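Appendix B.2, paired examples.
Example (i):
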Amino acid sequence: MWSKERTTYGPRHYLALLERKPGAFDVAKPLERWGLLARFAILRRRLESDLGSAGTRELIKVLRLLESASLRELTTAVEIALSIGATSADAVRLICLHRAERPVGLFSLDGHPHLKLFAIDPPDLGAYRVLTQIGA
């Protein structure tokens, strides 16, 4: 006698398949209990309003950003995208990337006294001036 095993699907892994078959999005078993926030439903309505049936595919592209971002990061990016009216998957991806960037800290010679012995000459911008004069 065999037992019924409960099959578990990972919704994130299923999105790549749905991207090719977006019509199955609403009946996809792995997504049934995912419980995405209302912001994603708003995004879907906007995308489908703007793009028609291609809007579902665009939403799936947005959800696939979960492959490289956390749900919190993606939710924040979707909120920002909705607020500025830039709802494409590319716009949401750029918002995620921009928010993940960390400013570069300035290099300080404090604690590196051996580097103070070196002096670097400023660059000669004469070559650049020649190029700008040739183009003019």
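Example (ii):
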Amino acid sequence: MKKLLFFAVAIFALSFSSFAEVDPYVVDDNAIDQTFAQAAEITVNDMNTAIINDFGMPLTDNSTASFKNANPWVAFALCWVLGGFGIHRHYMGTSKWMWAIYTFTCGGIFGIVTLVDCVVLLVGAIQNDIHEYTNNSSFFMWL
């Protein structure tokens, strides 16, 4: 057993030492200097028009995306699967710390809030209307 362990350590050490001499990363300082010399300077205003948010839309002045068209069935499925972490609330637009509140209260007061969210979202999905629950930053979205 000692010989097998020694052999494994030796092979492991040799495998790293064989690649130690090869330097695949070479920095060409002249190319970097040339790139900076050819670069154009932009301002923050130029960047705001060029940046695209996660939804593929250019950023607006308020920098928030509209959640009016959130799919009710997707919101219900997220609540059913990941409701204890409040992921469905982020899908529908809420405060950025709602995940922490859901997580640290064990799924929203030991799962009660998540259960009510599931029922409310199921009814909303059947009626195909959850607009009153979107962009809601309160802990109890149904109140």
